[in-house]
Amino acid sequence: MGTTASQLGKDLLSEYQELTFLTKQEILLAHKRFSELLSKEDRNLTSVPMEKVLSLPELKSNPFRKRICHVFSTSDMKDGSLTFEDFLDLLSAFSDSATLEIKSHYAFRIFDFDDDGTLDGGDLEKLVNCLTGETEDTRLTPEEMRQLISNILEESDIDKDGTVNLSEFQHVISRSPDFVSSFKIVL
Amino acid sequence: MAHNVNFDLTAQHMEAGLESPADEEGVHDSFNQLIEDQRQEAFELQELQRDLDEEERDSVAYLSSPGREMWRGSQGRGEEEEEEGRQLDPLIEERWSSATLKVLSSMPSRTIGRSRGAIISQYYNKTMKLRRRRQSRPSIKDFSRSARPSIRGYGMESDCMETEGVDEEGRKRDQLVNNLQNLSLSDRVRMLRAMPLSVAEKSELRRLAGRKGQRSNHSQIPCCSQLKYHIIIALRQSWYSCLSFLHSLQLWQVALKRVSGRFGTGVLSYFLFVKTLLFFNIFLFLVTGLFLALPQAVHPPTLTQGHEAFSGLELLTGGGYFSDSVMYYGYYSNSTLYKDCRVTSSSMDQQPSPSVSRRTMETDCGVKLSYNMPLAYFFTIGVAFFITCIILVYSMSKSFGQSFRIDKSHGILAMKVFCSWDFKVIKKTSVKLRSENICTQLRDLQYRSRIPTKDPLLKEASLLALPVVVSLINLLLPGLFNATAWMEEYDSPSVNTYVAISRNLMLKVSVLVVLCFHWLGRIASDPHSIGLQCWESFVGQELYRFLLMDFIFTILDTCFGEFLWRLFSQRVLKRKRKPVFDISRNVLELIYGQTLAWLGVLFTPLLPAVQIIKLLLLFYMKQTSVMMNCQSPRKPYRASQMSTIFITLLCCPSFLGAAVCVSYTMWSIRPSESCGPFRSLSTMFQSGKLWVKELETHNPNLAWLAWAHSYIVENPLFLFLAAGIFLIVIYFNTQVVDGQRKIISLLQEQIENEGEDKKFLITRLQAIHQQKRPLSPRRLTSQASQDSNS
């Protein structure tokens, strides 16, 4: 899977077209942008470190940018670095034609801050803090946070185990028609 | 050990759809139920220890069948239940031992979101379902012999449980690959794409599935199916390239991204809608341009008159130069267009042999290209509309399916937290704004019950808002009508007056109808929804406010409006004479005020007093204003006719409408429970009935009155009879009037005839006298004077 080559092979291109939700144009554009990220580094590297990925304008201001990198990264060192295929995975999950199931699956993994497979109280708290911003005046007070988390769990925890697992998350998501259109990143 | 665990999972597998996001049935059962079950059993710690020993080797979940895993997980869970001795929500507590945490982490409901093996096995189940749907049954030889025959082919390989080992994930993967091979190509592609695995793993699966598939394909399938296979591959490639081409057309991509980056999905939807409309119009333009404009432009019709010269105004008015061009309907010919084949030396070589021609025209043409213009026009427009209709209905149904959700009422908070972040927003300031907005929304949703207390005086003053708005409408719109009347041309001035009156009248009638509906239809039917104890008093107050506001605005209009208009017309417009007093407008204002008074007298008995004061003040004010600001009208005013019209308007829409509203209120609306003279009754009219009943019981002498009331007043037959008699009397009177008209005309004729007779007799008399004395003119004149004297 040579990604440091300046051009993608034709069969590789068609394979990516089959395996992801991206079109040929989008894959080529992704390759171009990925190469730009790699351009200043050593040519032998196949993966881009997380800091460079986070410098992309599409991710720069996103409060979930670090989690996105961690979720899509397949590196063994768990440092959030992305290969080109990870990058394609990212774009495919966030593309226009991705199914609701894929999007909700990855959204779940992004929101699962401690990677334990469910959204427990700590995950929800970090999620709400990411949503409301980093400044002090938009943060909720601890009392409000506690109340909010217990309301959320009451609404979405169907089996009453104190956490929201993937199925419950997908159930909540399926009721919102706007999720598919807001869970999109376009290069 | 005996556990009451529900193994009946086959039914659930069958029902679950293929791509439902909430694929709960295939993964786990209700957790609560199992906790209940477990709590009633006794456990042995050795069982737990044995399980834990097995699990330690492998952190990834091993799933032979979901039920069994459930059983294991719940067993561990139940054991913890025993240990802690808690009832229902112990899972929020965090003092678990490491062994418990390990069990927790390998529960299927938690691993499905995390581990690869769980995803593989989930998709194995899905491909199994898909195969079952697409084919009748997978072939027997694909399964191990040890599987029980009855469930062979349905994935319930319960007997293989004993062979669990390290390579469980690998085995699952092989099974998934096997399933993928047996799917059709498009299904395989779709399934691979939808798997939430990384591209590297998916390409590995694809390679394995493709390789085995290819091997089996080449060995089994005869050559015509191979051809079909190649054709399908070629079609797929062409489809992909077609899609890529369409995407490369990306109109406005950069601009849309900029907009969505700053403003988000909502504002973006407007621009996407613009894009959609653009495509519709491009389609329509192409169709009409190609099939209508182009053939006609190539064969222009012979012009009967000369072409107008091009001047710039055509671009605005659309006429002039454009009126005789391909832009408009009139240009198109109503006959069939023939290709103009002028015989030239070069074209002779290109033409087909003349022997093919059926009909000869002026020149020798070969095959004629004829184009039936009327037919083309009709079908082009029809087909274009039809196709547009189909496209619109299809996209509407698609978007409706995406956005319609059945159960929206609860779960709003969770939905907002999980779904409200718009990942398209890139600009930092927009992100910050959104975060603040989300924070506010979350806070508001939490404290929904908190209603800010308003200043009571402010609340009271805000009740004046509606009357002010209505009075403003009543003031400004007639001025607008007058302005439009100035632009219109009427046959005669009286038509102008009637049109102005009817417009003004319709405005006031509609305002009053809406207000009545609002008061009687909404407030009276459900007063408690607005927190009113006594709705009649509220409606009375509203009417008082309306009357008063109307008066205040009339004062303002008189003082400032007419005064200023006089100054304006004299100084600015430099008219010699002062403005005219608009009689009809002012009278209609009076009628409107009186209607309000009539409507309100039921709810506010002293409202006529207010109206009296208002009319007195109005009289003096208007008199002063007329003296100062207006001139006498130039046009003759047909006073008695207009007075008749005004009295009719006072009676018919005004009084009748008010009477209908009052009758409706008295007859059907339920009075308030806690206030007013009718508080315990179901309708106001009931008071009369009750009195009649009382009369019956207390005073037997007046029983006939009661009888009369119940049999005459309440009896609809009596009303019909009375109305019928009344109509008959009117009819007789009109007939009498008609008869008298006829007599008048006959008498007129008779008088004319008498006059004719008189003229005839006088001339005859004159003639006879002239005959008798014919000799001298002197004698004639003396005779004439004698005659005239006698």
Describe this protein's structure:
The complex is a heterodimer of chains A (187) and B (790). Chain A has 187 residues and is mainly α. Chain A has eleven helices and two strands. In chain A, α2 (24-39) crosses α6 (84-93), α7 (100-111) crosses α10 and α8 packs across α9 (142-156). The longest helix of chain A is centred in the N-terminal third of the chain and has 16 residues, at 24-39. Chain A is globular. Chain B is mainly alpha-helical and 790 residues long. Helices cover 67% and strands 1% of the residues of chain B. In chain B, strands 1-2 form a two-stranded antiparallel sheet. In chain B, α22 packs antiparallel against α23. Chain B is extended. Chains A and B meet through α1, α2, α4, α6 and α7 of A and α6, α9, α10, α11 and α17 of B.
Kindly report how far apart the N and C termini of chain B lie: 157 Å
| Share of residues in strands of chain B | under 5%
How many H/I helical runs of chain B?
Answer: 29
Shape field of chain B: extended
Of all chain pairs, the largest interface belongs to:
A-B, 90 and 78 residues
Count of individual helical segments of chain A: 11
Major beta sheet, strand line-up of chain A = 1-2
Regions of chain B with pLDDT < 50 over 5+ consecutive residues?
1-29, 56-92, 150-163, 342-364
Layout of secondary structure:
The complex is a heterodimer of chains A (187) and B (790).
Chain A: H1 10-19, H2 24-39, E1 47-48, H3 50-53, H4 57-60, H5 65-72, E2 82-83, H6 84-93, H7 100-111, H8 121-132, H9 142-156, H10 166-174, H11 179-182
Antiparallel strand pairs in A: 1-2
Helix pairs in contact in A: 2-6, 5-7, 7-10, 8-9
Chain B: H1 10-15, H2 31-39, H3 45-56, H4 66-84, H5 98-105, H6 108-111, H7 116-134, H8 168-182, H9 185-194, H10 199-220, H11 223-248, H12 253-263, H13 265-298, H14 314-317, E1 336-338, H15 345-350, E2 370-372, H16 373-403, H17 412-419, H18 428-446, H19 456-462, H20 465-487, H21 493-523, H22 535-572, H23 583-600, H24 607-629, H25 639-668, H26 686-698, H27 703-713, H28 716-772, H29 777-789
Antiparallel strand pairs in B: 1-2
